[in-house]
Amino acid sequence: MKFGHFDDTQREYVITQPDTPLPWINYLGSEEYFGLISNTAGGYSFYKDARLRRLTRYRYNNSPLDMGGRYLYLRDNSTDTYWSPSWMPTRVELDDYECRHGQGYTIITSKYNGIRSSTRYFVPLGESLEIWQVTLTNESRSDADLSLFSAIEFCLWDANDDATNFQRNYSIGQVEVIDDVIYHKTEYRERRDHFAYFACSEKLAGFDTQRESFLGAYHGWNEPAVVENGKSYDSIAHGWQPIGSHHVKVNLKAGEQKQIIFILGYQENPKDDKFDPPGSQTINKKSAKKALEKYLQTANADQAFDELRDYWTMLLGKMQVTTPDEHTDRMVNIWNAYQCMVTFNMSRSASYFESGIGRGMGFRDSNQDLLGFVHMIPERARERILDIAATQLKDGGAFHQYQPLTKRGNNDVGSGFNDDPAWLVLGVAAYVKESGDWSILDAPVQYENEPGTESALYEHLQRSIQYTLDRLGPNNLPLIGRADWNDCLNLNCFSDTPGQSFQTTTNKDGKVAESVFIAGLFVLACKEMAGISRKLKEERGDSFVFQLSSDDYFQFARDMETTVWKAGWDGNWFRRAYDDFGHVLGSKENTEGQIFIEPQGICVMAGLGVENGNAVKALDSVGERLATPHGIVLQQPAFSQYYLHLGEISSYPPGYKENAGVFCHTNPWIMIAESLVGRGDTAFDYYTRINPSAREEISELHKCEPYVYAQMIAGRDAATHGEAKNSWLSGTAAWNYVAITQFILGIQPTLDGLQVKPVLPSKWSGFEAVRSFRGVRYEISVQREGVGNEVSLEVDGKSIGGTIIPLPAEEGKTVKVKAVIR
Ligand code: GLC
Ligand code: GLC
């Protein structure tokens, strides 16, 4: 069953009934000011950091699940009835309802008793404010006497403190209401130099800033007393729960239409210019007023919206495809790229499954998020890489996370995740291939955010490789440390105390447990380093200081490959690890956890077994043992009980999360591996199994949004096989984008130019694509003339050898590429 449909022309998903299986959300803002918004206007806003600078309050894990947001209430004053134009929170049944989620905006339209209301929510580019543009139309035959109420609940900035520290919080809330604008200024008198404002384009009939006055004692958001009575209290909050609510009277003749604009904004003031007049305790509102003057005018709001649309047309225009499959087209052209922007911005901080107070930006996560984003705005990827690299430790290791507001590494979940450093190499490689910007390798970057420790980024990469070389175990495989990519495989933890965090507890010295996954990742990273140093030598000659040559990195890779064949190969697939007792995991010798997906993906991606046939063996084992109609599960057989020596992975019920769920992040690794061994049909089949658009028809089962990937789909051991959870913030977004665009469609940035080397499903006759790459627009047409994967290329009418279109082409030029596959 579906709850809406795609509108590909508008690049929107249109939800046609409000009671979706879960809140289906979207994101507002893509730079510094952000909001989450559900299909019934639930959600919240923040500036840069969802934990430290939260603007509006949201209560997670509520019932109903999604309560609290950017609410409007409409009241028919002639009948004393009221409703929510976004259905929630009153849940009065609407005559008509539609929610359109687009890139950075959401439009919720509904009709009740002849009154149509349409609200467009978005954040203008370059601004730290959000606009709600409400259009009310009287579609009935009689005149309407209406009241419109807005309602948001302010958060006292630090979302964690806000949700816990009530002995203090109930006394500190402060607001100002001046010229009909509501200003939230809690803690402004002391160390904060920022405030929020909430304004309306119309003259107000009243307002409220105290929650209890607005709702009435013992009332919920579904029946605010002020809305019931049609009269605001003009309440001023003193402590308790500051809110913002405007009351606007609207008289509409039959057929008449009116637009009303609300603005919620965030403003910082210089420390020495906080108050106006100086010496008073009144907020200096100059800058906020300027923004209000501009955006409370319809023409300016409309223009800001058009600019936002154009911006996305430009970003998405960097890669557009026309294939025989509509699900591929809409994910590549619109939704997957959009989700990559969101994961790039949010990392794993704020979604309807991540509370915004938990994790900062992850070292490994952010490096992977780059992979799907870097072609859109390479400059932002560059900045991100330098921020991440500055949290690298001197020994090459990494802080596992950092806070986006301060850009400093934090020790909340410790360090010693031994895969972390290698991801930096992959992130930088992706950036350099995309941009051709070699200067990033010279950029001076600190270690551990310590001034004075700067070295060239290139040296950071060397230390990343060295980190693994310095930490080899009894079999010469890399030691796993706290965990590798799989945070829940905790081989040095041995936690027997309830509540202990698996990721911060380490009871063993970690000199035995080894990871075949890191081995594969290391080989991949070494090959990237070899490529980078080869190319850098070409570009710079001897003027650049290399401690190690390209050949050295190839040698590291070869040595590790030898080790993997010796200790990491199980006969039909790659093993997963060795535990603290030196016992193998992910082997036919095990009773549970015989085969894991991660090493099959990463080792083949690193090239292992592609030549000797073992890659195909490993992938066939994946197909036989791990693949389900809902995606490929992480391992089999699932762990049926808790194993002290394995940790969190065995703490989950079978079929969920890392214990044999379809952990979607890993599926594209197998798609890539299948393309590397030339099996386009299998690669594309796996792609389709977890493609959210292709799963739209089973939305009742899938539950999450059909326009974005979720982290997990319950595996075959679960009671709810096929049910997705944790949508939006997952490495799944970037990796699926890479798998489909760079491997199946085969359009791949390389150090030497753009490669076109598709590995297509056999039924496809070809496809068309446009790709902007290093300032050049490539118009690519692919035709199948035979059943194989042999590619021949014609560039601007001339055939070339190989599959890489040589550089340079003149900036701004259009290059026509014809690829024939036989
Ligand atoms: C989560 C984490 C990611 C980890 C994965 C597997 O998605 O964000 O870092 O690799 O789980 O455990
Ligand atoms: C792992 C899990 C993820 C969890 C995280 C932090 O990455 O996959 O679900 O949130 O660890 O504990």
Write structural notes for this entry.
The chain has 822 residues and is an alpha+beta fold. It is built from 19 helices and 43 strands. The strands form eleven sheets. Strands 1-2-9-10-11-12-19-16-15-14 form a ten-stranded antiparallel sheet, with helices on one face. A hairpin with a 2-residue loop joins strand 30 and strand 31. The radius of gyration is 28 Å and the shape is globular. It starts with a strand and ends with a strand. Bound molecules: alpha-D-glucopyranose (GLC) (2 copies). One alpha-D-glucopyranose binds at residues 487-488, 503, 657-658.
Proportion of residues in helical segments = 25-40%
Summarize the biggest pleated sheet: 10 strands, antiparallel
Mean pLDDT: 96
Q: Give me the number of helical elements.
A: 19
Largest beta sheet: strand ordering: 1-2-9-10-11-12-19-16-15-14
Look at the helices and sheets and give the structural class: alpha+beta
**Low-pLDDT regions:** none
The share of residues in extended strands comes to 25-35%
Give the termini separation: 40 Å
Shape: globular
Instruction: Give the number of DSSP strands.
Output: 43
> Which radius of gyration do the C-alpha atoms yield?
28 Å
* Ligand identities: alpha-D-glucopyranose
